[in-house]
Amino acid sequence: MPNLKKYKYMAVLVLALFAVGCSSTSKKELKPQALEKITTEVSLKKEWSKSVGAGQGRLWNNLAPAVDGNQIYTADVKGRVMALDRFTGKTLWTRKLKLDVSGGVGAASGMVLLGTLAGDVIALDAATGEDLWRSKVSSEVLSAPVTNGDVVVVQTQDDRLIGLEAQSGQQRWIYESTPAVLTLRGSGTPIVTDYVAYAGLSTGKVVAIDTQRGLPVWEQRIAIPTGRTELERMVDIDGDLLLSGNVLYVVSYQGRLAGLDPQSGQVLWQREASSYVGVAEGYGNAYVSLADGVIESVDERSATAMWSNTDLMRRQLTAPAVFSSYIAVADLEGYLHVLSQVDGRFVARTKVDGKGVRVQPLVVGGWMYVYGNGGKLVALTIK
């Protein structure tokens, strides 16, 4: 049997090569595009910053912070978990789990949820940081476990979705899916509503699962593998899905950007795209950071590009986040770029973490939180 874990780690290197691009003539990697000077139109105010241990680590982790109420929760790769006041940055509690955390953070219903490389799912009390329960799943957890208060839904690296009892961590159901032979390392965070959980798989499919029984409500293929090699056939959905209004937004690597009907899975619109990060939405447009560093605004009615910004090529961008009437993305050098939703022009830029930023900026109630690879968490507002 092939060593799938080995292949998945190899794919991290593949992803990095795709992101920076290669020259077909010189066979040398093209460097990230140099930043040009911009005219600042919007003032960003740093409200506070905090160091969160070791940050993301070296294994392409995407440990994103999570907000629940007035608290923001964050974790580093070595198992340091912190609860902060999201307005002041004051530390409310800290836990040191002494485990290699690879999936997190989920926060809802009084719980803070994390996953580990060893396949542990950990639920902490959101008020104190004390253990509520721990549960073992089939393989490493590379995205945040999520909950609706009744069930905790976990996506594992082997493309399984597992439902755990929110009160005890006992397994309620498991949805089995055969992963692609070669995949990018990672998985998007599932979305869970009262009755349905949505997830993207390494095979280019989106599934909707009944949270009570674990049975599929529908399945929809977003991308069809093509090409002669396994590299060419990778169509992972690694970015987070987005449920906004009556549309479920999804983008795949070497596949498509699409809007789906969350009730039936019907494709409402679609457009060719390649991205390994998630989608943002605003003003009737979907915003996506493509694998080559182009940022596109796509009109949902016509599935045509309203604008494209090509000034951040090969800079390994995060997923965009809607911030007021702007969108924000961060890059491998730790710069946060703020663009107009109207035409994609730059309106602000600031450096957050010298080791880069990998996770999507988190926007809640007019505040934006950016968590850098080196462990720096920064809270920003617009003046």
Automatic annotation (TrEMBL):
Keywords on record: Cell outer membrane, Lipoprotein, Membrane, Palmitate, Signal
InterPro entries per record: BamB, PQQ_b-propeller_rpt, PQQ_rpt_dom, Quinoprotein_ADH-like_sf, WD40/YVTN_repeat-like_dom_sf
Signal sequence region: 1-28
PROSITE patterns: PROKAR_LIPOPROTEIN
Gene3D superfamilies (alphabetical): YVTN repeat-like/Quinoprotein amine dehydrogenase
SMART domains referenced in this protein's UniProt entry, alphabetically: PQQ
Pyrrolo-quinoline quinone repeat domain segment(s): 78-309
Domain of life per record: Bacteria
Membrane topology per record: Lipid-anchor
Annotated compartments: Cell outer membrane
Family: Belongs to the BamB family.
Subunit structure: Part of the Bam complex.
Function field: Part of the outer membrane protein assembly complex, which is involved in assembly and insertion of beta-barrel proteins into the outer membrane.
UniProt protein name: Outer membrane protein assembly factor BamB
